Amino acid sequence: MSKETHYDESNIQILEGLEAVRRRPGMYIGSTDERGLHHLVYEIVDNAVDEALAGFCKNIFVTLHEDGSVEVVDDGRGFPVGIHPKAGRPAVEVCLTMLHAGGKFGGGGYKVSGGLHGVGASVVNALSRHLQVNVYQDGKIYQQEYCRGKILYDLKVIGETDRTGTTVRFWPDVKTGENPEPGIFETGKFEFETLHVRFREMAFLNKGIRITLRDKRGAEERYEEFCYEGGIRSFVEFLNTNKTCLFDTPIYFEGVKDGSTVEAALQWNDGYTENVLSFANNIHTPEGGTHLVGFRTALARAVNDYGRKNRILKEADSNLTIDDVCEGLAAVVSVKLQEPQFEGQTKAKLGNSEIRPMVYAMTMDKLSTVFEENPSLARAVLDKCVSAARAREAARKARDLTRRKTALESAALPGKLADCSERDPAKCEIFLVEGDSAGGSAKEGRDRHFQAILPLRGKILNVEKCRMDRVLANDEIKAMITAFGGGFDGEFDPNKLRYHRIVCMTDADVDGSHIRILLLTFFFRHFPGLIENGYVYIAQPPLYKITKGKTEKYVYSDEQLQKYLDEIGRDSKPDVQRYKGLGEMSAHQLWATTMDPAVRSMYRVTLKDALAADQLFTLLMGDQVEPRREFIEQNARLVADLDV
Ligand code: TSJ
Known about the structure:
644 residues; alpha+beta; Heat Shock Protein 90; Ribosomal Protein S5, domain 2; Rossmann fold; 3 domains; 9-stranded mixed β-sheet; 5-stranded mixed β-sheet; globular
């Protein structure tokens, strides 16, 4: 600090502020893992999005550089460089070095600010080993740089320009173990996919802005551009990609009240899953909140009102529930408000109570009008909701029956389950095995201490094409639900699961991959918690056994086979045996190649992009034949080893 002569008392305060961020980063960005790291990018991009929402910027470019830095460029007015009256320093410096001094300061700021719960760019600066800001304004290029939030030199002019805008490039402070500073982040690796999903979402939520993501790391440059003139209407169309919809264009409305804006788009498809996403100030609220409650309640009310008025619902019928009217519904609800209050465990639930009646009134108003003006649309929606209600009633009865059984019979576990003796779920594995013969080998070959086997007979039900009542009537599905423990759908409780590894062990052929996809579809639709917690795995049986003299070697792909044959030489004629199915292996071979934790390799099924997974399952399992055929032709290999 001694070299920096301009530090007076207020600057010391600045340093103390940013020191607090470095001491307790979790307080400001949630965590210092991959999530926290990505929040840095969102925080900077949010500043540029604010400029776009104010109407002064159209393009935002994000670049991931080889050296681990991220660069964000916008074509806005350029961050003000004039002296901030209170701080006596250039405004851009104040924003990057003082806590809570974001775009909102100085009267002329923006109406609503996104920002990751508005922590501000100074937090990113504090947590960066290095940060450089360039401002293009009034024909000049201004620049300033920082190290862990400390100013390296005063704002200076470094050249001339004919454009305007702001550029921030930062190098996150990653723990390396070698530098004198301990570092902040456990990892410095930015995931293209994660950023891709978030920027796509940002572009949907803020119509017209263009966000470009460029990845310059690695040999092949990757590039994605997001811009949607339709905004959340396009978002809903995207959610319904390849689905059959009840009507052509999403219903859309927008309204402003008391300085808050409410926007929603919705469209039903003929499927059975609800896909309603809610956002507050561009932040996804997976736990919902007042905006979502207002929306869903109004929806049910509008549908019931119309049904009663037009005698589609008879006097004796009970009201359709919210879940009934949300079956097959894709919708996006986005509110922007002055002072968002986030609640809940992960701060992912909107708490502002004034928002609920606002969203309720606007939704009621719009839907009533749309139904009145489009009787055929209204009829299609009501028919769908009425059959949803019937199926729900049937499913409830089936569920009550299973529950009662469970309470009465002491050993409720399915008969064909060969359970393990260990009781700590974290140590337990269950293998779902296709067919009785492979099931037999697996039962014999396993380590019965911690490995359970559940053989599955015949075809697994395609849950994409049937409602809950039929899902619950299926024997294989019932067996899985009782074996796993922990309930499913809305009642799922990971703490009651009996196994923390659920392994799909199917043949390495077309049928095997089909069964695997059916299983994954079932987990994704009815046990999403299993995938989110990383409990689902795909076993990797070998493709070949190579015998030469006394040595035996298993390989898992054609590439591995060629490589191994090159290694040992082909002249003394090694014996290559191709496995077509698990059933061809002896119990011992199955253990030694696929089940023994010491040698096996398994894929863990992950869910980076829930929306992409939804579309993939729709595509693979849904009704529309042509897009599926195209997809499978183009991605034959991917379908064979699907990593959701
Ligand atoms: F904050 C930041 F440094 F991280 C950052 C800010 C990063 C990036 C990529 C962009 C920005 C940013 C800020 N872009 N545009 C602006 N605009 C303003 O800050 C601004 C411009 C003009 C006026 C005005 O009243 O004339 C007011 C503001 C707040």
